[in-house]
Amino acid sequence: MTLKIAHFLNENRPSTPCLVIDLDVVTARYRRLQDSLPGVVISYAVKANPARPVLEILNAGGSHFDAASIYEIEDLLALGVTPDRIVYGNTIKKEGDIAAAHAHGVRLFAFDSEAEVEKLARSAPGAGVYCRIITTCEGADWPLSRKFGCELDMAHNLLLMARDLGLDAQGLSFHVGSQQTNPRQWGHAIKRAAQVFHSLADQGLELKMLNLGGGFPVRYRKEVPEIEEVAAAIMEAMRREFGDTLPRMFIEPGRIITADAGIIQTEVVLISTKNYDNGVRWVYLDVGKFGGLAETMDEAIQYPLATHYNGAASGPVVIAGPTCDGADILYENAGYSLPLDLKVGDKIQIGGAGAYTTTYASICFNGFPPLQAHYI
Ligand SMILES: *Cc1c(COP(=O)(O)O)cnc(C)c1O
To answer: Which of 5, 74, 98, 180 is the most exposed place for a label (fewest CB within 10 A)?
Structure first.
């Protein structure tokens, strides 16, 4: 937790649960990414945290934006983001939404299927397009890719088809899986992408851009490679595969820009055991899977927890949310422990909570309002 957040919590005592984001950290993460990958276009994945103050900071810094829907595109335009800095990066789009984005001036779209190329050719004639290739997502804590992307031979054919239908076939994209902790995974994907660049060059189609997606990891409970290490692995693979004439490179970071900037302040609602013989403690918080912590599904993302009992003796716990839903258990097998002195009413700070939380909160499941957020 940054000093700024600690101060805010102390002064304002906001009701819980709430997310508090230190915007200085957002600025710092964006700059560090820029410094690590000079010349690479940063296209912020809006879905990670679409809050206005976050988008404003990135817009002022010249960031591009990767939008998942026409709604995100319209929010960006309303903020004054110019359409030449917006990519419609979802491979699954209604044709009416493609047409609306095109009418707004958006000129870069993703696809991974023949039907999507046909939609784009009809409703965004002449627009720039790129094809997403499939990756294994091995090494990622929050994999994405079985749902997205196509194999290399299909990408090759679809890009030729896009060109023949009058689209501007610009290049390829991939996503190595979110919270990817193995820097070599970018290298594998770059190698696969380069094969398509070469096979298409043989057919007279010179691709000019490669979008390396997101996936840059943040530190939750475990150490992860620093961004500079990932960046070095990326540039090494790019030079190995493309030599001195690199295509225009994009990245689409989400998590790494906002996760570290935020904590969720939560309160202990109940501590109990299920039997009298040394039963493990169940700790119920006022935030759970439906209140913004959806990424605890399968205990995939393991947030660090902090209390004011620094260094005190602790014991194993099961951690659950406040709703009347059996699925609303956060951690049962991940080996969490909490202080033995923990009491009902104590506050717990959930770290790394600035990405994929507010927008994952349900509207009013069990009557609980969506997660409140403070941007400071
Ligand atoms: C979600 C998403 C991202 C962001 O991924 P992170 O792992 O948060 O960096 C980037 N690109 C696409 C296409 C996405 O769907």
So the answer is: 74
What token pair was written down for 122? Answer: 């009809």
Q: Residue 131: beta bridge partners?
A: 111, 172
pLDDT, one tens digit per residue, over 2-48 is 999 999 999 999 999 999 999 999 999 999 999 999 999 999 999 99
Q: Is 292 left (phi over 0), alpha (psi -120 to 50) or beta?
A: left
Give the active site residue among 18, 131, 137, 324. 324
- Atom of ligand 1 at shortest range from CA of 177: 7
Q: Dihedral through CA 21, CA 257, CA 335, CA 286, nearest 10? A: 30
Do residues 291 and 361 make contact, with C-beta atoms less than 8 angstroms apart? yes
* Span 126-148, average pLDDT: 88
Short-list 366, 365, 364, 347, CA closest to 18: 347
From 141, 178, 211, give the residue whose CB has the most ligand 1 atoms within 8 Å, as the site to mutate. 178
Closest ligand 1 atom to Cα of 173: 13
Task: Identify the residue whose C-alpha is closest to ligand 1 atom 13.
Answer: 89
User: CA 8, 12, 17 angle in degrees (round to 5)?
Assistant: 85
pTM for this entry: 0.96
Residue 47 Cα: closest atom of ligand 1? 1
**Does 159 contact ligand 1 (Cβ within 6 A)?**
no
Query: Is 252 a pocket residue for ligand 1 (Cβ < 6 Å)?
Result: yes
232 burial (CB, 10 Å; 0-12 / 13-18 / 19+) is middle
From the CB of 250, is ligand 1 less than 6 Å away? no
Structure tokens at 76: 């960006």
Structure tokens that stand for 335 in this block: 């080996």
Question: What count of other Cβ atoms lies within 10 Å of the Cβ of residue 204?
Answer: 8
CB of residue 291 inside a 6 A radius of ligand 1: no
Q: What is the reported pLDDT for 142? A: 82
SS3 category, 5: helix
Which of 65, 87, 175, 249 should be mutated for ligand 1, with most atoms under 8 A from CB? 175
Kindly list the structural domains of the chain, giving each domain's residue range(s) and its CATH number in brackets, ordered by start. 50-253 (3.20.20.10), 259-375 (2.40.37.10)
**Residue % of the chain over a pLDDT of 90:** 94
Q: What is the pLDDT of residues 207-258, one digit of tens each?
A: 999 999 999 999 999 999 999 999 999 999 999 999 999 999 999 999 999 9
